[in-house]
Amino acid sequence: MRILVFGINYAPELTGIGKYTGEMCEWLASHGHEVNMITAMPYYPEWSVHSSHKGKWWHTEKINGVKVHRCPLYVPKEVSSMKRIIHEFTFLLSSLVYWFKFLFGQKQDVVMCIVPAFHLGFMSLLYSKIRGVKMIYHVQDLQVDAARQLDLIKNKTFLNLLFKMEYFILKHSNYVSTISKGMLNKILQKGIPEAKTFMLYNWVDTQHIRPLSKEQSLRSRLGLAETDKVVIYSGNLGEKQGLEIIVEAAAALPDVNFLIFGSGGGKEKLQDLVYHSGVSNVSFHPFLPYSELPNLLATGDIHLVLQKSSAADLVMPSKLTSILAAGGCPLVTALPGTSLYDIIHENDMGLLIAPDSAALLTDCIAEAFTSELQVIRANARAYARQSLDKDFILARFDKFLSTGKKDAQTEAVAV
């Protein structure tokens, strides 16, 4: 098949949506499909165009069998709601250069839009209608709902307009896919028929991401002993995570090393909070290459998967799949009844506390270091191998692309 994918994030971004989109496109290309990707210059999560692409304009790269069409865009140094809206619209405008080529070029068999940004769906929808091809609207984040819940957009008139725009795209797409049962339920509540939805869960390469010993970890490089207590947060440092409680927990647990790997719009604010709090057991580190991710995951005794209660079931933390595959012990903030809570609880593969509470986080970490966690780690690894394997999920997506029929086994997976 000829598959056209449209999204603002793509490899070589190491985390989040760009990572999954890159892996999906490369997997499809390796299985005989012709894949074109219209995307931006890589910038996430640092919110700065990567040095490899700075100063470049529109150009096409061939990456592992995928034709990647890059577009320039505005990337704000400090992220706010309005600046993010401008950022996303500059990409949409910039992408028109390639959309004109595809509108009048060789017909694609399917067009897939990766959300966010939600309004990218308009161009994908236009192509779908003009060329008469199927469109898949793949929802990684319920962006407008999150903006409302997190109070990022205060103008109700503007917010209602965004919801109407989103509904128009959802209604007119041939298929709507998403990554968790909770997000699917919210999409159904918007009035979208279940018959046009399907699940495309985020996956993990369970052969690459696997349990390693502490000797194979990064402890020696980081100046840590095998007996040191280590808690790791790795990923985007943004508004949805509520990372401020890490600092309070660190102040209450001076014998625990808190390692924060990553970048994002909230990093500077978090660093200032650490500095003014006077804690000495919180350290910041840059993202590591994907090849070293198993070693990083082996470094931590506990891995934090944090998000605010207001973001419940609107986003699904992508870091969780790697933690599970590495046989790690995730400490997850989630409310009962959400997809995240249910999957961890039902499979006994992590520690659960309510969001937004430094006291609960502190108590849970302290108790974890006096508990036996081997059963949790074994359950995590087993679940990843059985239900989240990259080939398992993408092979069924490939079958859906060819037949338009859902796979009952894939639909039943819950993460």
TrEMBL record:
<dbReference type="Pfam" id="PF13579">
    <property type="entry name" value="Glyco_trans_4_4"/>
</dbReference>
<feature type="domain" description="Glycosyl transferase family 1">
    <location>
        <begin position="217"/>
        <end position="385"/>
    </location>
</feature>
<dbReference type="InterPro" id="IPR001296">
    <property type="entry name" value="Glyco_trans_1"/>
</dbReference>
<dbReference type="GO" id="GO:0016758">
    <property type="term" value="F:hexosyltransferase activity"/>
</dbReference>
<dbReference type="Pfam" id="PF00534">
    <property type="entry name" value="Glycos_transf_1"/>
</dbReference>
<dbReference type="InterPro" id="IPR028098">
    <property type="entry name" value="Glyco_trans_4-like_N"/>
</dbReference>
<keyword id="KW-0808">Transferase</keyword>
<feature type="domain" description="Glycosyltransferase subfamily 4-like N-terminal">
    <location>
        <begin position="15"/>
        <end position="203"/>
    </location>
</feature>
<dbReference type="InterPro" id="IPR050194">
    <property type="entry name" value="Glycosyltransferase_grp1"/>
</dbReference>
<protein>
    <submittedName>
        <fullName>Colanic acid biosynthesis glycosyltransferase WcaI</fullName>
    </submittedName>
</protein>
